[in-house]
Every structure is written in C-alpha cells, then in structure tokens.
C-alpha cells in the first residue's frame, strides 16, 4: 500500500487542517488523531472489542468525526443516528445495533436520554458532548488516556440504518475485513477516485477541500466525507444547509468537491442573480449528486452556472451503482450513468428474467466482493436478492450502450429533500388514532423537495372528515414520529380502494397527483 489513509497522513503532516467545524473552528490532523486514539483507549477499558457497536447522536462536525475515526481503527461498527428521530425510534436503533457505548450531543439531550432509557443502556456507557442528564462528560472518557496509536488495530465499519417497508429500520452490516486500518483507509479512496478526484496530501499535491452539506447520518455523506479525509482533503462542515452560506464557504475555503442532492441545486438556482454573482465558485471541480432524480432543466442550469463539474451517480447503502460524468449527461440528458467499474446492473421483469435494452424493469445491482446483510433480518436480505444481485425496488431501463435511466420507483418510498421516507411507518402511527379507519401515505410532486408526504384517510364510522380531524391526527404524532415524516397535508376518502385480498391499490390514490408529470418519480 502507498501513503494515503488518514492515520498515515496525520502522522506525516500533523499540522494539516483536516476539518473545519460549522462555527469556523479549525482542527489539525494531529489533534483529531490524538483524540480518536484516546477514545479507543477509553472505550477499551469499558471492555469494547472488535465487532462491538458504538452509536452517536451528534450534529455535523468533529465530535462525530472523532467517534468515526476511533471505530475505524478499533474494529467497531459505528452508527450515526438521525437526529430528527424521537426517543423510541432512537432507542430501537441503539438496542438493535447492540451499542456498547452511546454518545449524545447536548443539542439532542431530551430525545437522546429517552433513547438510552428505551434501549436500557447502562449509565456507565452513556457519554455526552456538553451537558446531558445522567450521561458522563466525554472528557471523562478521554482525559489522561494515551494519545498514541492503540495496539491491535483492525479496520472497523460504519453501520447505517436504512428503513424497510415494514417501517422498522434495518442496519446494513458488512463483515469486518480484518485489514490494517491504514490499508483499509487507502482502499476507501477508490470511491472519489472513480470520479477522478485527486488526493490533497501528501505534501506536493494540490490542496483539496470537501464541503459536507448534509447530515452525516446519511450513508453517502459519511462515505464521501470519510473518503475525502482519507485522501488528505480538508472537511468543511455545514450545520444547517443554506444556499448563500454554501457559496460563501466554497469561496472562503476554495472547496473543490462536495456531495449534494437536487433540492440543494433548486435552492441555489433560486437565489437572486445579484447574490449568485457575489461569490467565486470557480474552485469547485466535483459537485457530486444523487439520492433523488434531478429534473433535466435544473441540472442544465447548474452546469451553465458552475461549469462541467456536476457529476451524478445512482447507488444504495447496500452497495453497487452507476456514475455519469458531466459529458455523459450532456450526451444522454436525464441518465444516472453507467455501471461503476466494479459494479454490474441487471434489469429484470416480474419473473426475474432479464429484459432487453429500452425496456423498463426492476433494477438489480452487485458490487464485486461486497456482501452485506440487513442485521437480524435474513429473510429481508434474501427477499431482495436475485442470485448475487440485490434490488432496492427501483424501476428503470438501460440503453443499448449501457446508460441507466430511472423511470419509476417502488411506489412506497418517498424521497423528500434527498431523504428516504417510508410510508408504512407513518401509516402504522396514523392508524393508531381512534378516529381513523384506514390510511394510505405516499409522495406527491413538490417543486422544492422533490416529493412531499400526502396522507389519505378513511375516517372511522360516524366521524366527520375535515380540517379539525386532520389537525387532531397530526397532533397525535407529536413525540412518536420525527416531524420530517409528518404528512404535509391530509385528504379524506369514503372508502379506501383495496383488492379482495386486502392489498391497498396505492397507485389509484397516487396517480391523480402525478397525472401531469412525464415520469412518476
């Protein structure tokens, strides 16, 4: 192996600014290295061993980065938790991940405490950044610990939770490799390498900076940011996304690469011309986007403004995917690209037979050498497989020359602002309301967010539909469901369309809202 990987680079050049917190505080690589070493030494005294889980409920910034770096060299599974979740939802993940340590930032203290209680986590394994009732201060874990590299280092992994259609999230767990963490860190760099992004270290390379625009609990965000760090880039963290602040940070830190979603593009191009013209964004060379379909005119506007730096890919937490360079996209507007060099695509009909080019079918993918399982759910893992390919249920077609186009997605999943939202979970909560007989939740078009959440409710016998009932239903979700999952609006129906076997005909409800769109996505 060569000289890439965070730990090697940090030892060679400890003064390199490896991360900038949202408040502008700069952290050197040497400082982050020492801190992550202390976390390993501290947690090992609690008995943590390779294969154990660690969870973090922390905002974007170096607190979470240190936990991530510790796990990656101690052989632990690190799970960053969505901070929009409620206590019971957090507790489910902490328990399911079998976390042997849980770190909570004081900003999320209330739900974090509820989550730790729900998971029945011992007080000695609760740590706080700032002040959280019943949690030990983070300093107590690291103070006085050696800041040297721990012994018996072995590569860890992130384990992100992806919601299933059953409504309960599943941890995507890959087997540990047993690799040396330095070698493993260097192997990670292939991800940005596929887009042609160069290292920013060792000395002599052009400096590179990566802007973290989205919450770090998203798989892609931690993968791309983590990879950039392993390549010696400076990570510039945003706390809450803001269009003008994005432009300011790109100019201020000479940001060369970032990971975005189409909602970001929509907000950026909506800025007044005079604001857009105020900032120099010429340093940006790789604005990589995914997570939701990008309308062709919107992407065209971004290319016209930022130049040929808009790259796209299609992938899943489970592994595998496609990539579209700006040139590919200009030649095939609307494509999400061709299969990665180490990935394969298969488009099949409902019987699992491969379909010819131009014919829509279910998209299956695989990535060479990558295996995963949904933690604790072998049946779900197997159900989504076809030979050694897997699907997340999206529908699309391939052109003769291998370019993938998405034509529809499994009707269930809603993508709003780049976040995956699963209706079953929302339906389960609304159905608990005594005045609700039946409910269907689905996405409807939203110019800014891609999709917004619509609920259609069949009121219980003798209950009058109307705005009062809608308000009462929404109020009942408080504290039980993250607000990002609440329906934006509720419509009422006399009787839900169902087949004799009870299967909900969701498309019947959904189609009218999409009838003026070319693609239902």
Please characterize this protein's 3D structure.
The protein is 31% helix and 24% strand. It has 521 residues and is α/β, with parallel strands linked by helices. Among the domains are: 345-408, Roll (Luciferase, domain 3); 414-514, GMP Synthetase, Chain A, domain 3 (2-Layer Sandwich). The chain has a nine-stranded mixed sheet, with helices on both faces. The chain has a six-stranded parallel sheet with strand order 7-6-5-3-4-8, with helices on both faces. β25 (414-416) and β26 (419-421) form a beta hairpin. α2 packs across α3 (62-74) and α11 packs across α13. The longest helix has 16 residues, at 29-44. It is globular, with a radius of gyration of 23 Å. The mean pLDDT is 89. Its EC number is 6.2.1.3. Residues 7-370 form the AMP-dependent synthetase/ligase domain. GO terms for molecular function: long-chain fatty acid-CoA ligase activity.
Topology, pairings included?
Elements: H1 6-12, E1 17-20, E2 26-28, H2 29-44, E3 53-57, H3 62-74, E4 77-80, H4 87-96, E5 99-105, H5 109-119, E6 126-129, E7 136-137, H6 138-142, E8 157-158, E9 161-163, E10 169-173, H7 181-188, H8 190-193, E11 209-212, H9 219-230, E12 234-237, H10 243-253, E13 257-260, H11 262-269, H12 273-276, E14 286-289, H13 296-306, E15 310-315, E16 321-324, H14 326-331, E17 338-339, E18 343-348, E19 361-367, E20 373-374, H15 378-383, E21 385-386, E22 389-390, E23 395-398, E24 404-408, E25 414-416, E26 419-421, H16 423-431, E27 436-446, E28 450-459, H17 467-475, E29 489-492, H18 506-514
Parallel strand pairs: 1-12, 3-4, 3-5, 4-8, 5-6, 6-7, 11-12, 11-13, 13-14, 14-15, 28-29
Antiparallel strand pairs: 1-2, 9-10, 10-20, 15-16, 16-17, 18-19, 19-23, 21-22, 23-24, 25-26, 27-28
Domain AMP-dependent synthetase/ligase: 7-370
GO molecular function: long-chain fatty acid-CoA ligase activity
Biased composition (Basic and acidic residues): 145-154
